Amino acid sequence: MSNPLLQLRPLGQSLWYDNIDRAQIKSGQLHRLLEEDGVVGVTANPTTFEKAIRAGHAYDEQMQQLMREGKSAKDICDTLVTTDVCTVAEMLYPIYESTGGQDGYVSLEVSPELAHDTARTLEDTRRYWDMIARPNLMIKIPGTPEGIAALQQALTEGINVNVTLIFSLENYRRVAEAYVSALEIRLQRGLDIKHLASVASFFVSRLDVLIDSLLEEKIKNTRDPLEQHKIATLSGKAAIANARLVYQEFRQVFSSARFASLARAGGKLQRPLWASTSTKNPAYRDVLYAEELIGPNTVDTMPLETIEHFRDHGEVHLSIERDLAQASNVLTSLAQIGISYEKVTQQLQEEGIQKFAASYCAMYKGTQDKQSVMGRP
Fold first, then answer.
1. Among residues 145, 168, 102, 110, which one has the least CA distance to residue 334?
2. pLDDT tens digit string along 42-72?
3. Residues tagged active-site
4. Spatial separation of the C-alpha atoms in residues 236 and 278, rounded to whole Å
5. Which tens digit of pLDDT belongs to each residue from 211-228?
6. Are 169 and 157 in contact (CB under 8 A)?
7. From 3.30.420.40, 3.40.50.10610, 3.20.20.70, 3.20.20.150, which CATH number describes the 4-205+241-321+349-374 domain?
8. Cβ atoms < 10 Å from Cβ of 225
């Protein structure tokens, strides 16, 4: 296996692709990623859809038909996106079957504008679930308090959920609790839990981006060379440390006697999914996060650029439980110099919701703009 991407699965990590657009489907690029690089899942990205709809021509024929039918821009956009999601779900279905429902999923998010509205998030979740009607679909719901309430209810109803925008350990604990509780409720009601699936998407690199900027400010505001050095040693350390501690929480929750009874009834693990694993700081190795978070029962969802980098020079080794003592020390050291882990992770979740909502709005705006360019019939 000269391709490092193909070495991930024997170590227990599933590779998912963070991208869908029709041109990639038609050109065979997505098929090649599945066949040659071992991709076993796909997540939709509204930014990618917006760019593809606005700039490309792969959607033109379907758009023209929908315009002739008098559909609104929102309905057109939803139809274009769900058509692609259905196509990808069909492509992934053999993987879904061969892995017993562990992989082979395609994820589609509800509107992030609803992240603090439980009822409307549930409404959107049910609408997409019914519209697409594929067993290997996951609905992406943000891990806000309101989102957690929605995702627990959705799971209880038998809807697969990809919980997004998780940043903190406490946030992860609440998400895992919601998943386990949903399985328990279904089992108590005599409902199937064997075919219910969920992943907990933990956003990685964004933590380093924000904390590194705070560290730079701390360095500028002190003249003590020893203190400056101490602060500088924390750069680029928080994200990996945080994810490794989350993995320990995952192992604790899903090795408990409480979950064992659910596992005997066919309940699946809610695997941690490492999202935002592209490296934002050019000073860091471009596959840093992908290399340092490899371990059993995990998922890494990579954009195309990271896949290409990892295929070229990724180094594969079991790394998720390396230096656990150091991981705890990183968070302790940040607190000692006045950087609040709780405030940083809460800020990142709120900013993430705002960015996702902006991307979602841009996707609809891109559809409207394309309609104007094409002209109404």
1. 168
2. 999 888 888 888 888 899 999 999 999 999 8
3. 140
4. 13
5. 999 999 999 999 999 999
6. no
7. 3.20.20.70
8. 8
The pTM of the full predicted model, rounded to 2 decimals, is 0.95
Cα–Cα distance for residue pair 108/89, rounded to 1 Å: 11
Residue with tokens 């050291």, as numbered in its chain: 333
pLDDT tens per residue, range 79-106: 999 999 999 999 999 999 999 999 999 9
Please, which residues bridge with residue 203 across strands? Answer: 275
Q: What is the DSSP string of 337-369?
A: TT--HHHHHHHHHHHHHHHHHHHHHHHHHHHHH
- In this structure, what token pair is assigned to residue 16? 């998912």
Q: Which value, to the nearest 10 degrees, does the dihedral of the CA atoms of residues 256, 259, 264, 268 take?
A: -120
Integer Cα distance of 131 and 319 in angstroms: 40
| Residue 131: its H or E element | helix 118-132
| Distance from C-alpha of 363 to C-alpha of 50, rounded to nearest angstrom | 4
| β partners of residue 140 | 109, 162
Q: Where are the domains of the chain?
A: 4-205+241-321+349-374
